[in-house]
Amino acid sequence: MSESTTTSSTSLMSFKVLILAGIFLIIVIIIVLLIYLCFRGSRKKRKMLPKLHSSGSTPLVSKEISMVKEIDLTRSSEKQTRIEIIEDHDEVGPKKEAEIMVEIGGVRKGDGGGHMMEDPNIGWGRWYSLKEVEMATRGFEEGNVIGEGGYGVVYRGVLQDGCVVAVKNLHNNKGQAEKEFKVEVEAIGKVRHKNLVRLVGYCAEGARRMLVYEYVENGNLEQWLHGNVGPTSPLTWDIRMKIAIGTAKGLTYLHEGLEPKVVHRDIKSSNILLDKNWNAKVSDFGLAKLLGSEKTHVTTRVMGTFGYVSPEYASTGMLNERSDVYSFGVLLMEIITGRSPIDYSRPPGEMNLVDWFKAMVSSRRSDELVDPLIETPPSPRALKRVLLICLRCIDLDVIKRPKMGQIVHMLESDDFPFRSELRTIRDKDYVPSQADVSIKVPYQRKHTEPAEKSTCR
User: Fold this and answer.
1) Cα(245)–Cα(280) distance, integer angstroms
2) Sign of the dihedral through C-alpha 161, 165, 171, 176
3) End-to-end CA distance of the chain, in Å?
4) Which of 64, 77, 160, 336 is the most buried (most CB within 10 A)?
5) Mean pLDDT throughout 397-412?
6) 422 in helix, strand or coil?
7) Which positions does UniProt annotate for Mg(2+) binding (predicted)?
8) Residue 266 is a catalytic residue
């Protein structure tokens, strides 16, 4: 009885073990199948999608896909996408690699031409193609010429969006590399001030170099001072002082608001543009020179306009911002008198504006200095203030010339130099010239007027 019970229990145990073994085997088979299916699926995906690489090494797959955005010039700047495929048997040499390219933002190197179409947006402004500039100026039509100087001809232009610009076609740029030109243009383009003409872009193709400026609608100061304006000048005394102050503020920003500072080197009436509200804008940075903060002067080839150039710059070539101050003093005389700095049509004693101006002040004939075309002359008080500023700007002692920031303060102050606390202008060793004594403006010798910090930023 007991043996039969033992046998039946043993057979039951064996049956249970077999069932468990079968279940375990089924689970293992299922797991293996799942792993196989996953692996097979991943292989299919790899076959369907080629691998991309950007390391510049040998391709990981047999085909290299290069997306090239092409500008379709015949379809109003619509962009198409072209796919180039290199087969396994193709030899990928340097020339072929050069043809595999990715165009970003419109930049593309031509096939063998070496020309580069640039991204129009360059941060501070815009790059213009030669075709765009030619269309804007109607092929540089002579009727669109609005000015001409030693560095180029200026054309009025209208861009495709209707924006009116002034295009300066630069001369003598054969030796200037495109890279060097772009660096200089970028330095100019980032300068922003309401009294400086804004550079909105440039064009550099082949040997052509052009600057695209904002268009200032009222011409330049020279036209209004020396042109045919009738018996009465539209430039009243107040308007002339507004122009002088705006010019001084623009130069103050160049001298004191930038690092490195900028010396203009060609301050003259034709480089002062006027908008419809008679606001002055200093133009033509073609002659500007960047100065490092550690430098007090730069020795360079003398550049500028005869009559405006300071004596020390003309004789030695030593240039710093005080050279601009002298030129501004001559410009201020021109604004007051309506006379050109050098006029050979006048009598010998009046050909040179600076010499004639000093002689008139010295002989106490200051009232005769005012432009006769000004309908309402200034008050004696206002005239004396501006005459003093002129004399200080053209002082032969460079150190005694005021800074442009100080000049702005003097021009804007109605009380200068008549209040006692404002009569602290000269250095302690200053000795008044004969011209200064004649307009009876006292000085204190033991105090120097502090330089006004630029607030133009």
Assistant:
1) 8
2) negative
3) 114
4) 336
5) 96
6) helix
7) 271, 284
8) yes
Range with the lowest mean pLDDT among 84-93, 140-149, 157-166, 181-190? 84-93
Mean pLDDT of 296-323: 78
Superfamily of domain 126-214: Phosphorylase Kinase; domain 1 (3.30.200.20)
Question: Does residue 388 contact residue 417 with C-beta atoms inside 8 Å?
Answer: yes
Fold (topology level) of 221-438: Transferase(Phosphotransferase); domain 1 (1.10.510)
pLDDT of residue 96 exceeding 70: no
Residue 351: count of CB within 10 angstroms of its CB: 17
How many other C-beta atoms can be found within 10 angstroms of the C-beta atom of residue 392?
20
Helices (H) and strands (E) in the chain, counts: 12, 16
Closest CA to 317 of 394, 263, 275: 263
277 known ligand binder: no
Q: Would strands 261-263 and 126-127 be described as parallel, antiparallel, or unpaired?
A: unpaired
Task: Tell me which amino acid residue 380 is.
Answer: P
The crossing angle, in degrees rounded to 10, of helices 404-412 and 237-256 is: 150
Tokens of 242: 């507004």
Residue 242 is assigned to a ligand binding site: no
Q: Is 284 annotated as a binding residue?
A: yes
HSE (CB half, 13 Å, CA atoms) of 101? 16
Q: Which of the following is catalytic: 72, 88, 119, 266?
A: 266
Q: What is the mean pLDDT of residues 337-363?
A: 95
Neighbours of 61 (CB within 10 A): 13
pLDDT-derived band at 261 (thresholds 50, 70, 90) equals confident
166 and 216 Cβ atoms separated by less than 8 Å: yes
Rounded Cα–Cα distance for residues 182 and 209 (Å): 10
Nearest Cα to Cα of residue 158 among 181, 128, 188, 186: 128
Question: For residue 425, is pLDDT > 70?
Answer: no
Q: What type of residue sits at position 44?
A: K
Instruction: Give Cα separations from 411 to 336, 366, 425 (angstroms).
Output: 13, 18, 14
Q: In degrees to the nearest 10, what's the CA dihedral of 9, 14, 17, 18?
A: -140
Cα distance between residue 156 and residue 136, in whole Å: 8
Specify which residues 82 forms β-bridges with.
Answer: 68
What sections of 73-220 are H helices per DSSP? 94-99, 130-136, 178-189
**Res 175: pLDDT:** 52
Domain with CATH 3.30.200.20 in the chain: 126-214
Query: Crossing angle of helices 321-337/353-362, nearest 10°?
Result: 70
CB 273 within 8 Å of CB 149:
no
140: left (phi over 0), alpha (psi -120 to 50) or beta: left
